[in-house]
TrEMBL record:
Annotated positions binding Zn(2+) 1: C377, C380, C417, C420
EC number: 5.6.2.4
Stored Pfam families: DEAD (PF00270), Helicase_C (PF00271), PriA_3primeBD (PF17764), PriA_C (PF18074), Zn_ribbon_PriA (PF18319)
Gene: priA
Catalytic activities: ATP + H2O = ADP + phosphate + H(+); Couples ATP hydrolysis with the unwinding of duplex DNA by translocating in the 3'-5' direction
Protein name: Replication restart protein PriA
Family stated for the protein in its record: Belongs to the helicase family. PriA subfamily.
Keywords, ordered alphabetically: ATP-binding, DNA replication, DNA-binding, Helicase, Hydrolase, Isomerase, Metal-binding, Nucleotide-binding, Primosome, Zinc
Organism, as annotated: Solimicrobium silvestre
Amino acid sequence: MQSEKILQIVLDTPLERVFDYLWTGEETPQVGQFALLTFGRREMVGLIVAMKQNSDIPRDKLKSVLTVRQQLSPVSSEWIALCSFAADYYQRPLGEVALPAIPKNCRTSKTTALDKALKKLSLSLEVKGEPSESPQLNAAQQNAVQHIVDAKGYAPSLLYGVTGSGKTEVYLQAAAQVLARDASAQILILVPEINLTPQLQGHFQARFPELTVAVLHSGMAEGERTLHWLAAHTGKARLILGTRLAILASLPALKLIIIDEEHDPSYKQQEGLRYSARDLAIWRARQLNIPVVLGSATPSLETWQHTISGRYVKLSLPDRAVAAAVLPKMRLIDIAKDRPQEGLTASLISALKQRLDKGEQSLLYLNRRGYAPVIACDACGWMSNCTRCSAFLVLHKQEHKLRCHHCSFELRIPKSCPTCGNSDIQPLGRGTQRIEENLQKFFPDAKIRRIDADSTRLKGSAQAAFETVHRGEVDILIGTQMVAKGHDFKNLTLVGVINPDNALFSQDYRAGERLFAQLMQVSGRAGRAAQKEGGSVSEVLVQTRYPQHPLYHALKTHDYPRFAKECLAERQQAGLPPFIFQALLRAEAKELQIAIAFLRQAAELNVPEGIIMHDPIPMSLMKMANSERAQLLIESHSRPALQAFLKEWLLQLRTLKPRITWSLEVDPVDI
Ligand SMILES: Nc1ncnc2c1ncn2[C@@H]1O[C@H](COP(=O)(O)OP(=O)(O)OP(=O)(O)O)[C@@H](O)[C@H]1O
Ligand SMILES: [Zn+2]
């Protein structure tokens, strides 16, 4: 029998609305299914979020949906609720959250690619060999696993384990128990960077050879992404590994969430829907009433504070897992006394030489890619500014380019100073390429490898590069934050940190927390295996002008708790997060004054008590890609009060109809 129904559908549009469409077909669709329809003149796929009998729109004005994607099972109401929460909390339309979370192939008018993926998915996979052996857990690991698997319902815990303490093994063995007791259970494991997925995928696939492991990250081709998303959505994949976007995957039987390196800033999306995957994971776990594990050697202060207040349970792994492995010895090299030559102090050179002689690996960490951050003319003071951004063009010597790391603008390297014609223009400062070049001069026979965003542009090249390190084909590895975390290098006994001081004096109140985490992480790459007979004691050398700085002192003693305690005390005193809640309204325009004027207008709208409205200020990177940018900080001691205010405020802001670009970020991390 034919029946009429009104389908309420959300679409990927900036309009904060649900659209009514008519259904006149036979089998009534279900909430959570996807429907093809015409919107204006375009064909679009939308998500059915509700159904009703009547619409406020007259019958003859209502359009019918064209078809419903019967081949896709509906997404769950919990998934729609997750997207609704994210939309609500981060102040975006539901359609802009839910639809981009679905692969494009599920949202096109033709279903060829989708059908192909579904067919591929249905082919059964062969079982691949015997599972890898699980090592005997140490007492601390065992306790952590027990706690995770014994948890009843929502149970957030922090797995606070020093670098190399075997957090991965805890994840693997907790996963094994959760999967064993529930034949359909799915587990979601998040990592901060794409380049950490192959290693983790390897571990999980080896331990669970009979299970399908799905991987979700932004570096996948559309066909691949569709296949893995479908594996997760249909429940076929029991293990789902991914970067932040995987938190929005459709997972019908999710029973455990693990977030590795939970402190990592890359869990925060910095454009569009500016969500925190970690915070959404907590919400999702509570909604589904399941355990969630946050793992880190350097937890975020927010998370640490939750363990102090008792909201999260702290599970500690105080020692390295490999019995004879110890945390590396830290040495602060005062560069006022031991003057660097080409960026490298004599102490570091001699430590490197020792490793080379013993056939051990070293890692040099410098969080700045390119050859030099700027080139300058000695005669007239000209510097290579980006004309479109308030930033310098970075010298990329091998490619003969000056490149802006903010807007990607490029120039050929000028032969002489563009202002005065002086032919002696020089690079100032150092990036990874320059260190690589100099190092090769110091050690002509050493196998040196640089891993950073420039050296790994091609798909698969980062993984290939890391494999050469694991196979021992590299003596000295140079890299940015890409090499600093997660990797389990077995033969590495020296880490050199070059020029980390900048962050000590940054205006960003989180800079110290980030620097400490980065340095602890990168230090943690050394000494992960037992010291060999006649081998070196593992060490970390930090080249600094401020060896007395308290941050370095805490680092030297591997004392995260002390560092966290001091930071939290400072934050509390200064009224900073996690002791206050923030949102940031950003505006950009041709001229700064226009952006500021809009923000000022916004700040003068009705502001209730309990909301602290600051003055608009230029952003620290004021100009970017020819736009001038300003920001307005809003704070409150109450999260609900801030949320309620933002909702109202946004409605008013929209009525101002500013002719500039603006965006709102809740819980901003970069201020
Ligand atoms: N119980 C155990 N017995 C022996 N070796 C173990 C045990 N648990 C883990 N390991 C080994 O210890 C090493 C470090 O483990 P893993 O990489 O998981 O550390 P991690 O805590 O994730 O470190 P990081 O935070 O630095 O990434 C690995 O080589 C792992 O195989
Ligand atoms: Zn630029």
